[in-house]
Amino acid sequence: MNSFQDRERAFEAKFAADEDLQFRITARRNRLVGHWAAQQMGLTPEETEAYAKSVVQADFEEAGDEDVIRKLLGDLVSAGVDIDELGVRTALEGKMAEARRQFIEESN
Questions:
Q1: Source organism's superkingdom (predicted)?
Q2: d(Cα 48, Cα 7) in Å, to the nearest integer?
Q3: Whole-prediction pTM value?
Q4: Class of domain 26-107
């Protein structure tokens, strides 16, 4: 029975580590896409940092990416940037790949 409990604990630990890693990758993706959006809107470096943080915080409003997409799309359109929801989703996908790549490079 001890072997089963050890395997169960190992599985739970791996699950927790995987969830933590996914959370960190998503937060980095949101920061990266926040920088991208700030550049599209022509923000200053100081405004860019604050905006990137606000995009990360927006992800805590609800589960999934819809809260981030809504924020980005609303802010970009309000700033006069010619973009649609597909463009925002494409940027999110690209920044997710970049965030994963950065984590892989950091772990090597």
A1: Bacteria
A2: 46
A3: 0.86
A4: mainly alpha
